[in-house]
Design a protein that fits this description.
Distance between the termini: 11 Å
CATH class: Alpha Beta
CATH architecture: 3-Layer(aba) Sandwich
Structural class: alpha/beta
Strand order of the largest sheet: 1-10-9-2-8-7-3-4
CATH topology: Rossmann fold
Shape: globular
Helix content: 40-55%
Number of helices: 10
Number of domains: 1
Radius of gyration: 16 Å
Amino acid sequence: MIKKLENAEWQTADISIFWGEIAPTEHVVQIYENDESFLLTLEGFVSSGLTAGECVVLIATAAHLKAITDRLTDQDIALTELISDDQLILLDAEETLAQFMVNGWPEAQLFEQTITRIIKRATDRNRIVRAFGEMVALLWAKGERSATVHLESLWNRFCQTQVFCLLCAYPSNGFMQDINSSAHTICCAHSKMISGEHSSRTKVFFKTVPQHSSGIII
């Protein structure tokens, strides 16, 4: 499958360069085939940010928070120090999502208040910020398609007023029905898409999502 990615549509980059040069206003998505692919992407996103002295915010499931902190520990990254200094902020996705959901719908004002508090905490020491959010994937997994798209739009609006890179990720098994249409809807809410087959610690396959894309195949 990697051969299919090496065409005019997909680009490849050294993973440290990709994350090191990512624009602070990028909204990136990965629709991944398995946890290993996802965790490799997230590991590169987090470790390169920490190495650059940025603040990294992770809003993820408990299982994924544990998995990524285990990987960072294996890299001999001083997690306790980073967490105490608010350079690494770990937040539970379910708990954070609950702070702005009203009757099964993301309420815009509560969302802005919730995320503003988080970003203010992240920028208090004048650090550049990058964030990963898994709340959209939780809504999508529950079949809340409209609520998911609305939450992505709230993120996009918020990112227009703040300067930080945002990464989202969805498991591909949530796109089994009408896969091209549903993937197209999600991908068009983002500026870049990372291959769900990403399986290397050194390379990343990605493409820029056209603003008015006519179709995304994963």
